[in-house]
Specification:
With 782 residues, the protein is α+β, with helices and mostly antiparallel strands. The chain is built from 16 helices and 44 strands.
């Protein structure tokens, strides 16, 4: 996000610079709304004298023309007054503002609400027959309405007018219809409410054919005809328009071949709108302008069904819109609520000629232009207005009136635009060859002469001079000015015979400057940087120096890297080395909080080299096999674990090895690593310490392995073997007995199933014995 904001800011700055650079005179320069300033220094060598204000201090040594301080002068400030002859509620009444395009100025003013401010109340009633019931009830409630208004102010004028529509086909069904008219003033503003009641009670109703009415015709005449209506100079002017139909607007008059636009003037004579058949219906914009200029408060009281038609007029015309219920009409309560809101609050508005609207902007604090601000009687409400002149306008002054809606008082702003610089002109100056006047550091040549010093005569022909400067159909590619047939480019921006080379197109360096501020853009080749002697690279950001890559008497990057753009690029250390490197490629000391973790990692990285010191990557690892490890001095004196000495070792610069200097990690004690697996079932331990003089590490490892784990494995293996043999023997025995039993069973089963089974039991003795009697003879009868 910040990057995009920077890009946008840079683009805006370049755009402002380009716009300012276009101006060739001081008066043109200060008229630019980009807040350009002019360098009037006579010794200014740059052809560009008009520049952004932020650049002036760096590019101009002095004599800067910058009408900087806008001024607000109070011209009239009458005191607050509640006298009816001269009521004053707004102070001051006139202020003069002096400022140049692009500048902003504050001005103060105050509003004080007075009691019993005069009120002019004018009723505009739709005269169609459908409004007869509304008129009747309004007449009945006129006394209540008048009493209600009297409680708010004792100075009331009340009047009334009616309208139907233009008396022409197709708005009526006859060529001449007496009952159709655009506007009729029935009662001029006066104090007698009885006349108002009688007038509205006795009014005659007309008719038209189409649905829309000539509402806007009547409204325009009611505002434009000051004398006919009776509007007072100092009063709150309120127009209440009552209707149950929609309205015609500008352009609808073409239906009756009426095409002349309404001009905002009064054409009411003898109570009737005299030019209703010559002028088109008024536009909403002209009605808004008339209401703003005259200080009118317009209230539309419409039937509920028509609310959507009139509601947009609140924004388009600044009007108030409300509805009425035809069955329970209480016009006095409706008007009482609206008028209370109007009198107890204010809304600021400003008016000027439409041709000036795009040239200025006014804001208020508090902002009562968008929302109403509440003010009590005799209270003062202070405002701070802010006026900004958006761009130059070639007029003497801009008149602007700030008003309070519904009041005829105003604060008049007379805006004077600063147009000229404060330089003295030296006529027939010798610096201008006697052919021009010296003004604000430059020559303004007389007719017939041109050039930086008015040295070129136009008698030779202006076209000849310009032709020599033409390229690609433009003079000096629009990047400079043609001086006597030669292009003079805007310095620091363009160069070349035709200013074809843009000096702002080179690469921006890391510091966001062209050529990193260490070279010149387009010096040899357009669009490319030419670096200073000690710099190189496309953007000149790479220094050739090596001051940041070595210490005095030491090797570049400590012999462990290359110096690139005055910064060390360290070589990749050996795979066993976990230490980090500083800006000079020296091993750096770890913080106490991370030292233990890094030592643990270092132990893991050294394990492959401990097992095989001839392995690739173990060149600088010196492994020694020992029977016992050295005593760890860190256990007795922990602070010696890492030597923090800043002493620099005096090591010859020609040494091919890495030099370890101040604040590098130099272990003065052995660091013990945890036991690790060296073989199957065997473990060992080792200690290490980094070499001080050269790059490497000394490692001492126990030559005798701890293989206790192997014995446990052997005993466990034998036990498991015996158990397995026993289990196999049992399984085999079970298999043999099962097979034998199965064979005997099969044989027995076959014998049972045979035809003559031999079932003699040799030891069986029967239970009975039979004997035979030889003397017994069987009878014949048997």
């Amino acid at each position: 996000m910040k990057f995009y904001l920077c890009i946008i800011s840079l683009n805006l700055f370049l755009a402002a610079s380009f716009c300012c650079n276009q101006h060739k005179t001081c008066r043109e320069c200060i008229r630019d709304e980009k807040k350009c300033v002019w360098c009037a220094d006579e010794n200014h060598k740059d052809i560009i004298r008009c520049m952004p204000e932020v650049d002036a201090s760096d590019r101009c040594l002095g004599h800067i023309q910058n009408p900087k301080n806008p001024n607000a002068t109070i011209k009239r400030a009458d005191e607050f007054s509640s006298e009816k002859a001269r009521i004053v509620q707004l102070k001051p009444q006139e202020i003069k503002l002096d400022l140049r395009p692009g500048q902003t100025i504050d001005f103060d003013f105050t509003y004080k609400r007075v009691k019993d401010y005069p009120l002019d109340f004018y009723f505009l009633i739709d005269g169609s027959a459908s409004m007869s019931n509304f008129a009747k009830k309004t007449a009945e409630q006129s006394k209540l309405m008048y009493d209600m208004l009297s409680r708010m102010t004792n100075d009331i004028f009340i009047g009334m007018g009616t309208f139907v529509d233009k008396n022409a086909v197709p708005y009526t069904d006859k060529v001449v219809e007496k009952r159709a008219y655009s506007f009729k003033n029935l009662l001029k503003l006066n104090k007698d409410y009885e006349k108002f009641r009688n007038t509205i009670r006795d009014m005659e109703f007309g008719m038209n054919v189409d649905e829309p009415e000539g509402t806007m015709d009547a409204l325009a005449q009611a505002m434009a005809c000051k004398d006919e209506i009776g509007w007072r100079n100092q009063s709150r002017k309120v127009i209440v328009l009552n209707t149950d139909a929609t309205y015609h607007v500008a352009g609808h008059g073409m239906l009756a071949s009426i095409i002349q636009p309404y001009d905002g003037n009064c054409y009411t004579k003898n109570g009737f709108y005299a030019k209703e058949l010559q002028m088109d219906y008024p536009s909403i914009s002209i009605l808004k302008h008339m209401a703003l200029k005259g200080g009118f408060v317009i209230i539309f009281v419409v039937k509920f069904e028509r609310l959507d038609d009139y509601k947009p007029l609140e924004n388009d015309m600044g009007a108030k819109v409300t509805t009425y219920n035809e069955k329970a009409l209480e016009i006095n309560k409706i008007l009482g609520t609206i008028y209370s809101n109007i009198t107890e609050s204010i809304q600021l508005q400003h008016a000027s000629d439409s041709k000036y609207q795009d040239y200025f902007k006014i804001t208020y604090k508090p902002d009562c232009s968008k929302e109403d601000c509440s003010v009590k009687i005799n209270d003062e409400l202070k405002f701070v207005g802010t006026f900004k002149l958006l761009k130059y306008l070639d007029v003497e002054s801009i008149p602007i009136d700030i008003t309070i809606k519904g009041l005829n008082e105003k604060l008049h702003l007379d805006v004077n635009i600063i147009k000229d610089c404060e330089c003295k002109a030296e006529n027939n100056s010798t610096s201008c060859s006697g052919k021009g006047s010296k003004t604000c550091g430059i020559c303004e040549c007389y007719n017939g002469w041109q050039g930086e010093k008015c040295q070129c005569s136009l008698d030779e022909g202006l076209n000849i001079h310009k032709e020599r400067c033409m390229a690609n159909g433009t003079e000096c590619n629009d990047r400079g000015v043609c001086k006597c047939g030669k292009c003079k480019c805007w310095d620091n921006y363009f160069k070349g015979d035709f200013c074809e080379c843009n000096l702002q197109t080179c690469i921006l360096g890391p510091n966001n400057e062209l050529c990193s501020g260490h070279g010149k853009c387009g010096e040899d080749v357009c669009g490319e940087c030419k670096c200073d002697d000690d710099w190189t690279g496309k953007d000149c950001s790479c220094s050739k120096l090596q001051t940041n890559c070595k210490e005095e008497g030491k090797k570049i990057c400590n012999g462990f890297g290359e110096c690139e753009c005055n910064k060390c690029t360290c070589r990749q250390p050996s795979s066993w080395d976990t230490r980090k490197r500083d800006e000079l490629c020296r091993p750096v000391q770890s913080e106490a909080a991370t030292a233990a973790a890094e030592q643990q990692l270092q132990c893991v990285q050294l394990q492959p080299c401990v097992l095989d010191d001839l392995k690739d990557g173990c060149k600088h690892v010196n492994v020694t096999r020992v029977d016992t490890l050295p005593v760890n001095a860190a256990e007795e004196n922990p602070e010696n674990l890492v030597d923090n000495s800043e002493e620099t070792l005096d090591i010859p610069a020609e040494s091919p090895e890495l030099h370890i200097t101040e604040k590098t990690q130099r272990s003065s004690v052995w660091i013990e690593c945890p036991e690790f697996r060296a073989d199957v079932g065997c473990y060992t331990r080792f200690v290490y310490k980094f070499k001080v003089v050269e790059y490497g590490v000394d490692v001492q490892v126990l030559s005798k392995l701890n293989c206790a784990e192997t014995y446990y494995w052997a005993g466990g293996g034998c036990l498991i073997g015996l158990i397995l043999i026993g289990l196999v023997t049992l399984v085999c025995w079970k298999i043999l007995t099962t097979r034998r039993d199965r064979a005997e069973y099969d044989r027995f089963f076959k014998e049972v199933q045979s035809e003559n089974p031999e079932l003699v039991n040799p030891i069986f003795a029967p239970a009975t014995v039979s004997f035979s009697n030889p003397a017994f003879r069987r009878s014949r009868h048997d």
